[in-house]
Amino acid sequence: MKKFALALVLISLLSPSLQAREIAGVNLTETINLHNTPLEKVAQMRQITLPDQTLQLNGAGIRSKFIFDIYVGALYLPSKATTPDQVYKMPGPKRVSMHMLYDEVSKEKLTKAWIEGLENNLSEKEFKQFKQTLKAFNSFFTTVKKGDVIDIDFVPEMGTTVSINNNPRGSVENDAFFTALLKVWLGKEPADEDLKQGMLGKTEE
Fold first, then answer.
1. How many CB atoms lie within 10 A of CB 90?
2. Most Cβ neighbours (<10 Å): which of 55, 56, 117, 149?
């Protein structure tokens, strides 16, 4: 019996996928394998080979506005990064997860936030370059409520895929768009400075 208990302890220590980090009552898994996500279904539909890639939690934090906590944001990468440039330039798949804390956020507010976030962190020329892609991206969103989870995944040659509660909503195939989107959280004018630092693994909640 003691050997069995010891084996369980060792498994928990050696298997980061079984561990989780808690922020504001939200449990964030430390690792994600792409084949255990809605991306597998999307890849099959589009006849694309999904890489056998495991992403690790780079960092996370809370997006707040005024006195309200809106969501827990988590950044997953192939390897650790502590600066925005490292994140932008890192090859391979990436994910941003948004675990909603606020009672309800309308589709209109979500899409407005993407527009404002990109406008604040891109040049006018860059923003115009992504205008049509952003329009398609915004069409994937719906009103979300507390407890809902939005996953925004990037896979090279597959583009950016939005899933809500593990249900794929759609993809945009412009690979450069995801890097631009990351600037909403990690750019010079991020949506929330504390969240930026959290995603870069520089703060602990």
1. 16
2. 55
Over the range 162-189, which residues count as b (16 or more CB within 10 Å of their CB) and which as e? Answer: bbbeeebbebbebeebbbbbbbbbbbee
Q: 10 Å Cβ neighbour count for 113?
A: 17
Q: What is the 3-state secondary structure (H, E, C) of the chain?
A: CHHHHHHHHHHHHHCHHHCEEEECCEEEECEEEHHHCCHHHHHHHCCCCCCCCEEEEEEEEEEEECCEEEEEEEEEECCCCCCHHHHHHCCCCEEEEEEECCCEECHHHHHHHHHHHHHHHCCHHHHHHCHHHHHHHHCCCCCEECCCEEEEEEECCCEEEEEECCEEEEEECCHHHHHHHHHHHHCCCCCCHHHHHHHCCCCCC
Inter-residue contact 184 to 200 (CB < 8 Å): no
Q: Which residues contact 11 (CB under 8 A, 6 or more apart)?
A: 18
Counting every residue written for the chain, the total comes to 205
Q: What is the mean pLDDT of each run of 10 residues along the chain (205 residues)?
A: 42 46 94 93 89 95 94 98 97 97 97 97 96 97 98 94 97 95 98 97 68
Facing residues of 113 across strands?
Answer: none
**Counting beta carbons within 10 angstroms of the beta carbon of residue 110, is it exposed (0 to 12), middle (13 to 18) or buried (19 or more)?**
middle
CB under 8 Å to 192, separation ≥6 — which residues?
61, 62, 63, 64, 65, 185
